[in-house]
């Protein structure tokens, strides 16, 4: 496709799965406190050390980009003011490391789901005070994005959803979320830094039902609130599975709406119904995903962020490095296979043939050029007596073709 692998695959490291991750789960305490700070006990000193460790890992892995939540990089302190000050100090440190290494910010985001104040949501909360706190985090997040020249800015709707419709006004909450995003767009314009905003859909977890359920639901929302000029989607493999979709389906929906922004690379588990965030190793699935991404002309300015974590039993630093290598290798193989699928033009031919009746007949052409009316079509059908020629799709054969391209 005239591009090098490096030009096609822009990988990013996630701060929360590498530095902050400690192996705790709802049933167990941490298995892997990664004490990057040797003997420091001051939280800010630790935060500085963590940034250094993060950049060291990225350099070892040859990562081009990184992603983080505000709470990953700096302690929240005792007030929002303190949080702001801590963030400023660490952001400056990150900026130095970026200048030193050439590693870039893919996106940052605000964690508006862990702090107890967000138990009823952030932009969809029932409290105006909480809504204002969320605004404070986003304003700071956009200032940071400007300082670090972020390409995207992500909104995963952590607790934007509901537990029961009996105490929830869904329309009101969606209106508030729409308003919130417009406030963010307006602020970004006012500081002259407009990254591509991304909604990251997920159907459930932690809420019973999340408003950004899947790609199609997020697009309907963006259209209703007139936000499509500013927002695209950040799609995650495991979230697609949770919504009952394949990853390729979600990618295809997004690119159909011209809204494929970036991806969170991981995979789920066939047996587990939650976001297990495993590293991507399934070459077949990822080849199909890469096919969609290449058909989209790549991800620009997005990239491939590893929203994936090592298991809590896999706690050595080496595991973290090997896991990312396995993930990058999987994507590299997928890229090769998907590129071959496109360069071969074989599938393209199959698709073309499948719709030929629209392109190669007067009837089909009249539908596509808008000259047909319901009556002209009905009259045609009546003339033919409702008879149509049945043609096989050779579906099993077409599906087996994929095997020829797997690398
Ligand atoms: C959780 C999401 C989460 C987001 C992150 C950035 O399921 O995948 O990890 O990607 O908060 O928005
Ligand atoms: Ni994610
Ligand atoms: Ni997730």
Short description:
The chain is of the alpha/beta class and 407 residues long.
Order of helices and strands: HEHHEHHEHEEHEEHEHHEHEHHHHHH
Termini, distance in Å? 17 Å
Approximate strand percentage? 5-15%
The average pLDDT value, as a whole number, equals: 96
Binned, the helix content reads 40-55%
Class by helix and strand content?
alpha/beta
* Shape, principal axes of CA atoms: globular
Indicate the topology:
Elements: H1 5-8, E1 11-14, H2 15-18, H3 43-61, E2 65-69, H4 70-73, H5 80-101, E3 104-109, H6 128-147, E4 152-156, E5 161-162, H7 170-190, E6 196-200, E7 209-210, H8 215-224, E8 231-236, H9 237-242, H10 247-256, E9 260-265, H11 283-295, E10 304-306, H12 317-344, H13 346-354, H14 356-359, H15 362-368, H16 374-383, H17 395-405
One nickel (II) ion is lined by residues 156, 200, 236, 264, 307.
